[in-house]
Amino acid sequence: MTKSLIRVSLMLMALIAGTIACNARANTPVPPPAVDAQRATTSSQQTMVVAGGCFWGIQAVFQHVKGVVSATSGYSGGSASTAEYETVSTGGTGHAESVQIVFDRSQVTYGELLRVFFSVAHDPTELNRQGPDEGPQYRSVIFYGNDEQKKIAEAYIAQLDQAKVFSSRIVTQVVPLKAFYRAEDYHQNYAALHPNNPYIAFNDAPKVANLQKQFPALYVGK
Questions:
Q1: The one catalytic residue among 54, 99, 141, 211
Q2: Which domain holds residue 169?
Q3: Is 22 considered catalytic here?
Q4: Is residue 178 in a domain?
């Protein structure tokens, strides 16, 4: 059985059992960050890397966000020698399925993207899993690229925890980005290319729908 079929089987089992986890704030966005970078006055690109479950859904969400130039599925947290899907799927490589997001700072801020990440892209209170996917490779992580990103991410998590926005504490790690390794071609744009895949239909399409509903000013149809 392929990894994709295993994922679909797990998802269907979770549906039957009624145990698919969903974002505790699925119907409303989390508050905006109190600490954020200023929007640039001219076009200026920056990169962020985040992880929160299967990279198919994270990529799908950010591909529909205004100001995002590209969203690429890949691996972060481990070494180059283990940045390969079958190996990462064992859960023992240190890697998390991640997405590298290149964005235009004149159209969207780092904090605004983190707000999307916490609101609709995944559930930041789930430890080492998301929905039907289990293991440290599905953990919630913000891989910061500079001190400003670290400051914004840590301040935002503290803000959301203090306000008790979620029913449980946020478990998202904030760690320095050492490297990002692009995933195999067949993982790129997976949700867009396979909209009828049961895993995508049940697990990822609702995230994009929630993005459009909660952030109409940021949503871009493609």
A1: 54
A2: 3-214
A3: no
A4: yes
